[in-house]
Amino acid sequence: MDYKVWKSDAEWRDLLGAQEYAVLREAATERAWTGELLDEKREGVYSCRACGAELFRAETKFDSHCGWPSFYAPKEGDAVELIEDRSHGMVRTEVRCATCGSHLGHVFDDAPQTPTGDRFCMNSVSLTFAPDADADADA
């Protein structure tokens, strides 16, 4: 796929920290329960740490008890790209940023408590969070 944002591996390495590069560009996974955005409760927008594209709104975030920030839907239908992942001896659906192709996490259809039934299980290190202006005032 042709992405709106493209950089060489060297440029990504210069832009991202070691863990960010491992997750975003090499599809690693951060350890469960360690991500800085896991317990974020304010209203706002979650964006791709690599390119800044807006990916998820806080109102779709829910506590899935899986150890990673979880959302039931992306911000826009085309904000993320879904790709079959057959690594680690299983079949899963990888979630990538549709703007730059960076690895964000995986999506599972095991969240019947949500409007979509989906659990977009994202790595905190793949995302940045910007609170809504009024959310900062309430914090």
From TrEMBL:
Its EC number is 1.8.4.12. This is peptide-methionine (R)-S-oxide reductase. Keywords: Metal-binding, Oxidoreductase, Zinc. NCBIfam families: peptide-methionine (R)-S-oxide reductase MsrB. The keyword Nucleotide-binding does not apply. InterPro entries: Met_Sox_Rdtase_MsrB (IPR028427), Met_Sox_Rdtase_MsrB_dom (IPR002579), Mss4-like_sf (IPR011057). One of its GO terms (molecular function) is peptide-methionine (R)-S-oxide reductase activity. It catalyses: L-methionyl-[protein] + [thioredoxin]-disulfide + H2O = L-methionyl-(R)-S-oxide-[protein] + [thioredoxin]-dithiol. PROSITE patterns: MSRB. Belongs to the MsrB Met sulfoxide reductase family. Pfam families: SelR. It comes from Miniimonas arenae. It comes from the Bacteria. GO terms for cellular component: cytoplasm.
